[in-house]
Amino acid sequence: MSITIKSEKEITLMREAGKILAEVHRLLEKEVVPGVSTWEIDRKAAEFIRGFGCKASFLGYNGYPASICISVNDVVIHGIPSKDRILKEGDIVSLDAGVIYKGYQSDAARTVPCGKISAEAERLIRVTRESFYEGLKYARGGNHLYEISGAVEDHVVAAGYSVVREFVGHGIGREMHEDPQIPHYHMKRRGIKLIPGMTICVEPMVNAGRCDINCLDDGWTIVTQDHSLSAHYENTILITEGEPELLSI
Ligand code: MF3
Ligand code: CO
After folding, report:
1. pLDDT of residue 2
2. Closest by alpha carbon to 38, among 117, 99, 92, 109?
3. How far is 44 from 204, CA to CA, in rounded Å?
4. Strand ranges in the chain using DSSP code E only, listed in sequence order
5. Which residues have CB under 8 Å from 186's CB, separation 6+?
């Protein structure tokens, strides 16, 4: 899959998809409360996404069995919703969701607190979101892709945390995963030149401890090797001549 430059008409649809996904996230965040199972949150997600006339892009993607990914505490990404995973006060919960609207995709993730969480967990969530915004400063036409990557890592490392390296951001459009791949760490080269009309997802996955991860036997669930907490923050971004446009907010 190569890099696609979207026309005005396509951008209009990507904006629609993004606005809907932002609303889905606002609704889902309210569902993160002690005592609820991640399966129940996934049911809500399916209902909300359908209610907006969209498809859940994750469902069936490479055989993925649910509508969204829900990753709790030391689960980095790709947590499979389950009736057995009951949220409790103090958990941090990463909600990763994607929608398809009239053939166009949007993809976004947020880590939200379940009830009252520790100051350290709050800081991890904040630094992860901030690292996205540090990268975003470089997401403009004429800049080079890996300027984004380096800025994300610098912010994370300065806070004493680590960036997951095995999973990266990506282009997005008619497909959820298009070129280019977007690492969240420094690269030796400067990467491709960004062009207005590109749509990309930047999605730092940040561990409170070491960057090493494991995949569980279910073939999906990614956890931190040292069982430290992990947070995730992602938006779909439109590259323009000037300020980038956040489509999924
Ligand atoms: N949101 C993820 C990404 O950005 C995709 C989830 S994988 C799936 O790449 F299988 F659940 F779809
Ligand atoms: Co993504």
Report:
1. 87
2. 92
3. 25
4. 55-56, 69-72, 75-77, 92-101, 104-113, 162-163, 169-171, 178-182, 199-202, 205-207, 213-215, 222-224, 230-232, 235-238, 245-246
5. 146, 149, 150, 153, 154
**Residue-range domains of the chain with CATH:** 8-246 (3.90.230.10)
User: How buried is residue 219: exposed, middle or buried, by Cβ count under 10 Å (0-12/13-18/19+)?
Assistant: exposed
Residue 199 CB coordination number (10 Å) = 27
For residues 228 and 183, is the Cβ–Cβ distance under 8 A? Answer: no
Which residue in this structure is represented by tokens 């569980």? 216
Q: Which ligand is nearest to the CA of 59?
A: 1
Closest by CA position to 76, among listed 240, 198, 208: 208
For ligand 1, mutation pick of 58, 205, 236 (most atoms within 8 Å of CB): 58
State the amino acid at position 163 in one-letter form: V
Q: Which two tokens stand for residue 78?
A: 């790709």
Atom of ligand 1 nearest to the CA of 109: 1
Please answer whether residues 120 and 127 qualify as being in contact, where contact means their C-beta atoms are separated by less than 8 angstroms.
no
pTM above 0.90, yes or no: yes
| 99 CB near ligand 1 (under 6 Å) | no
CA distance 53 to 115: 31
| Regions of the chain short of the pLDDT cut 70 | 1
> Does any ligand 1 atom lie closer than 6 A to the CB of residue 64?
yes
